[in-house]
Amino acid sequence: MATRFPRARRRLAILLAATFAAVSPASAQDPRVAPPKNQKKLPEAPSKLPKVGADKTRGLDFLFGALKAAPDEASAKHVEARIWALWMQTPSDTAALLMMRAKAAMDAQQVDVALKLLDSVVKLRPDYVEGWNRRATLYYLKNDYAHSLQDIEQVLVREPRHFGALAGLGMIMQDIGDERRALDAFRKALAINPHLEKVPELVKTLSEKVEGRDI
Question: Hey, what's the signal peptide range on this chain (predicted)?
Fold first, then answer.
């Protein structure tokens, strides 16, 4: 997997460079204002996660295979929850506590508090994928797409199979009007997790817009 990181980094760097030109500072929401409740919902870990083993790499490889082969929605959700549980694991008790506090702050609409807590997480454990992913989600909810894209890059360099980050990338591209890149990101997310909610509909709609209807 390590050999894929430089290639993923180059792809994301090109994407970020092109995107920053399209995202102006004015698009960022006032950080003192809580994100509206009717924002689009990104894929996220379920509120209750199953217990999983300590062998993270082997566990994820097996679960991603099981996710693609899941025969129905219920089975897929069970496997997906186990993937999230492995992603959420951290050997740092401090990072785990900061993540819990950040979630509580977000639930209480305390955006600035949550952001500071997540800043601490990524500084403490830059190898922890979910620290970056949670902060990317927070930036997305604030409409701060430039910073969200930077954090998404960090997620995908560490875990190219992170369907939540890929779906978030697609939503940002869709929001700024880059439908071709949005379609590409959504397709990649679906290739990893065919059971993502609403993403198949987004792919269908964008396919018709970008590639035209079948004749």
Answer: 1-28
Q: Where are the alpha helices (DSSP H) in 21-144?
A: 56-69, 73-88, 93-107, 111-124, 129-141
pLDDT in tens, 128-165: 999 999 999 999 999 999 999 999 999 999 999 999 99
Taking the alpha carbons of 46, 51, 53, 54 in that order, is the dihedral positive or negative? positive
Cβ neighbours of residue 4 under 8 Å, at least 6 residues apart? Answer: 160
pLDDT of 27:
40
- Using an 8 Å Cβ cutoff, are 63 and 82 in contact? yes
Instruction: Provide φ and ψ at 70, rounded to 5°.
Output: -55, 130
By mean pLDDT, which of 44-48, 174-178, 203-207 is the weakest?
A: 44-48
Q: pTM for the full model?
A: 0.77
191 to 72, 162, 184, 196, 207: CA distances (angstroms): 16, 11, 11, 10, 15
Structure tokens at 44: 């996220």
pLDDT band at 181 (very low <50, low <70, confident <90, very high): very high
Give the whole-angstrom CA distance, residue 206 versus residue 73. 23
CB 189 within 8 A of CB 163: yes
Do you know the residue count of the chain? Answer: 215
Distance CA 96, CA 11 (A): 31
